[in-house]
């Protein structure tokens, strides 16, 4: 790569996006077509795909094989795991997560879309909006993905008919809008033939909108973390205690959001103690200010107790501290999540013991109704939970911050991730913990 090309890529913006849709809607073919037609595939990759396609008796290369890397995926012709691909055009760099379509792999879509700024939901033009389409739209809405593209695929199999596209676009747009999705763009495509993927289609002159790639290149990317509430989860305490730095004490980590400045008054949570930022070290040099997502070391004016898992935030804009967490979750483990279960809750760099106090409801994706008191959540279920933690947490609402409003529930026995959570109306309580909860926590030692 030449230095000029490197400079061009460093100057372009980055878009993280995910693809989703029902089984056989053509997600992997669309991704393969994007990579192929944007000239983001190496020659040896194309040769490997052509050989694999030939061995399966196909005359033309199957572009879906560019992303379906697992042997089971190629044998079954489906996507099982999330496939990440990195590519770039002169206008933008991309990180793509190709997620599975099967119902039992909905949790993989949660993984792929959790950091996405845009989701491409595919629909087969012959089948229209199906249950899994609604499921993926709901997941995108819950994860607050700001942009959703409806790609109505296989238009070549409905003779590129505008009414077929219009009916699907109208139904999906109404459903997604009811979920609170802020922006929906519908594009008619044929991933197999390449219509409206990278190049405009000659078969759909009735469509005057952008191609998929053109929309991906031009959609506004609004992941400016510097405009968010400033948050700094402490990862590590640095105390060299050397002759050169006998009294140095710094708190290292990655700024999750916002901007921190020398001289600013900050609070250390969950203790609530306040101090000021005496210095900021970045890449071995002192700076006056630092912003997300930089990794820096903060030096504080007062010698107070700060350790890994604490959160540093502006004194006048600190999140509430609570031990009662109410959240929307997607259960990702094969074993169920039950009321009374003991778990670990991991929030940023802090991990605390917790107990599932209640599962008030499970979401029914067909009609978005709430099934009350299900008793448990099984794999791929989306529901509400109430969790009581053994120690206070400085938790933002997920609606305010995707970084500091999210958490994981983990099995303490083997470290398995059980549930991905998005904090809702968490609140601080002045009430003392009840006797039963305290007794349970006292009996639970590592």
Could you estimate the helical fraction of the residues in percent? 10-25%
Q: What would the principal axes of the Cα set say about the shape? A: globular
How big a fraction of the residues is strand? 25-35%
The count of β-strands is 25
Span from first to last CA?
Answer: 52 Å
Instruction: Give the low-pLDDT segments.
Output: 1-11, 70-80, 425-446
Mean pLDDT: 83
Structural class: alpha+beta
Give keywords.
single chain; 446 residues; alpha+beta; eight-stranded antiparallel sheet; 20% helix; disordered C terminus
What does this structure look like?
The model is unreliable at 1-11, 70-80 and 425-446 (pLDDT under 50). Strands 7, 8, 9, 11, 12, 13, 15 and 16 form an 8-stranded antiparallel β-sheet that branches. A 6-stranded mixed β-sheet has the order 2-3-1-4-5-6, sandwiched between helices. The protein has a 6-stranded antiparallel beta barrel with strand order 17-23-20-19-24-25. The chain has helices at residues 3-11, 27-37, 43-55, 71-76, 106-113, 131-142, 162-178, 212-218, 435-442, and strands at residues 13-21, 83-88, 92-98, 118-124, 147-153, 184-188, 232-233, 236-238, 250-254, 259-261, 265-269, 273-282, 285-287, 289-291, 295-300, 311-314, 321-331, 337-338, 342-347, 350-364, 369-372, 376-377, 382-394, 406-410, 417-423. It is α+β, with helices and mostly antiparallel strands.
